[in-house]
Amino acid sequence: MSTFSVNKKNFSDYLYPLVIIVFSFAVNWNFSKFGVFPIDTFLHYDSAYKILNGEYPIRDYWVVSGIFVDFLQALFFKLFGVNWYAYIAHSSFFNMIISITTFYFLIKLKLSVKSAFFYTISFSILAYTISGTPFLDLHATFFSLIAFYLIILVLENPEKKINWFLIVFFYYISFLSKQVPSSYLIIINTIIIFPYLLNNKYYKPITIIFFSGIFFLLLTFFLLKILNTEFNFFYIQYLDYPQNIGLERLNIFNITFEFMFNKYKFILIPLFILSLLKLKKLFTGEIKFYSLEFTIFLIFFCFCLCLIFHQLLTKNQIYIYFLVPLNFAFLHVEIEKLNIKIKPVLIYLIILLVLISTIKYHFRFNETRKFHELENTDISKHADPSVLHKSLKGNLWVSHLYKGSPKIELKILGEIRAEINKKKNKIMLITHYLFLDSITKVKTNSPSRTHTLDGASIPIIKNKYFDYYKNFFRNKLLKDQINQVYFIKIENISTEIFTNFIEKKCYTKSEDNIFIVFTIDIKCLD
């Protein structure tokens, strides 16, 4: 099979990577601009803007995940300005990085350049493009995927110290992007890899992993110190409270095999066939349980299952269809090893299935923007949000809230912005429009990144951290001397976000055409 030569380079050695780089960036850039689902589309927008202005997650506003993505987006805003183009440049760049990494990884697996190119193009269409805009689950998953690639490659030469350090690094930033699926993968990979290393008497990698872990643990304490953030805040918000969310969802977890197969059949079918081929080798004695080949298979198999489990447990739209070309690529590699007459037929069948599934999921998710709840919205009827603020130029605004009437929504948002800019007292704004802080002259002083009462945003009544958040919320009101808390009426966000945490005697309620307003007696909070 053709692979990239080390000494001589031909035209295709440059052409294929260049096409992947351009295409993977462009496909995400193109589809990211169509429509918005404010709470998801702009999840890291205001958070990153706040960081540039000295407000940090955990310390200044409640978050339960995604802090690394916030800081990374802040870097893009710092370099390119606080605007929509800098926002989607982040996700488009990430789609490019994970795609070109996948291409070279598949080459290392001994796929031909053309086959690796085909699978990578399919991968890039179904990877970050599903969301288009920066999103914590995608960052966490793709950092874990890079770590997975490194694990597969380093197991062939376990003495390469830097690679083990990089594996720990990518899992570290994956965890700081979102605690799962990285936590699942770290635990399972430890269970699989350590026995393999010990069985083959590779002791140095274990030492490197251990000291790398210590290094990043100390780095965490150092960064918290630099950001003037108490470790207790980090522990509760980022480590302990999210476990409560996961356990609550696990308690009501009830998924049938039929449901799983219908949703993930193009992921499960190649994984099932690959499993049969590997088990056949194991039972016939071609490979041993602790062999390199079977260990790599176990890591890959568990990687896929962890992502499926995470997807089933999370409440987000499905985003793991990038596993379809990846799983079929692994199956392609395995079939190439077989000595059977129908091998070419099987390869063409795999390519056809990948092509069909890529087209299917592209039209279902990318074209309709299903991830952002726009599949039932006519996204051709969009408006230009630069009329609201020039920094939003480039987005083709349409949302599920005002189907077919995006201009009306933007007009209302313009009125909201104008009213906020008139405020002379310090206010707090509770909203799902997570970009308003960046386009108003008055700070909105949000107490948390998102505002839902399903337990995913903040602790709710009966949660063990309810009183902790109550104190966190009250202290923010006192620290920032907030006089009024505003809810935007068109959003219908439950005012319990406020009333659950502040005694009734400490506020008065009023409303106008735009806002529900709670005026606070600050002295009452002392």
Please characterize this protein's 3D structure:
It is a single chain. 60% of the residues lie in helices and 5% in strands. With 526 residues, it is mainly alpha-helical. The chain has 2 domains: 11-311 and 321-372, no CATH class; 423-525. It has a 4-stranded mixed beta sheet with strand order 3-4-6-5, with no helix packed on it. The chain has a two-stranded parallel sheet with strand order 1-2. A hairpin with a 3-residue loop joins β5 (507-511) and β6 (515-520). The protein is globular. The termini are far apart.
Mean pLDDT: 92
**Strand count:** 6
Strand content: 5-15%
Order of adjacent strands in the largest pleated sheet: 3-4-6-5
Give the H and E element order.
HEHHHHHHHHHHHHHHEHEHHEHEEH
Helix and strand content put the structural class at mainly alpha
Distance between the termini: 74 Å
Number of domains: 2
What is the approximate shape? globular
What are the low-pLDDT stretches, counting only 5+ consecutive residues below 50? 1-7
The helix content, as a percent range, equals 55-70%
Question: How many DSSP H or I helices?
Answer: 20
Largest pleated sheet: 4 strands, mixed
Whole-angstrom Rg: 25 Å
In short:
The chain has helices at residues 11-32, 38-41, 45-52, 67-80, 84-108, 113-126, 136-154, 161-177, 179-199, 204-226, 231-251, 257-283, 292-313, 323-336, 343-366, 406-422, 436-439, 466-479, 496-499, 522-525; strands at 34-36, 396-399, 427-430, 484-488, 507-511, 515-520. With 526 residues, the chain is mainly alpha-helical. Helix 3 (45-52) packs across helix 4 (67-80).
